[in-house]
Amino acid sequence: MRPFSVNTPWLWVLGAILVYVLLFFAFYPPFYASWDEHQILDLAVGLWNGTPFQEDVGYACLNTQTNQGYFPHTFFGRPLSLLPFVGFGLGAVFLSGLFIHLANLGLLALLFRKFLIDTRWLILYLFFPAFMWASRTLFAELLTASFILAAFYFYDSSSLRGRVLAGFACGLAFLTRFDSL
Known about the structure:
Helix 5 (about 95-115) runs parallel beside helix 8 (about 140-155) and helix 8 runs antiparallel to helix 9. The protein contains nine helices and two strands; from the N terminus they run H-H-E-E-H-H-H-H-H-H-H. It is an all-alpha fold. A two-stranded antiparallel ribbon has the order 1-2. A hairpin with a 4-residue loop joins strand 1 (about 65) and strand 2.
């Protein structure tokens, strides 16, 4: 079956997206629960305020003490991706996982279109338990997957531009989580 055929496999995918978004908001977590997420959010808020250092020991949460203050043990990629959400408050920060998960679905749709794979297979990705859970956290895995999917998409092209974009996407994946490659 062709990816954009007349018998509307995209309606199945759109319906699944609607169900996923409803489930996401039904169990929406407006708080963070782990020290990893705390460090990611701490660095994002610090970058938003102009300094990556935390001066108050009460908010340091296993950070490294330096002369300037406490510095989080995390990669810069995920906190940088949170910057557009930080200004809207803590609840908005957790929406980033929803957007990343849906962006990954879009990248997979592009790959499926390129390789003539039926788009209804996207539903398996959308409801895969590990990805559903990761979309509700601040962890870097989904963002890293975004960059790796983009790298696959661009690398498949035969042009130099595509290969350079694939390398750039791999570099962003490395910035987000160095052990991803």
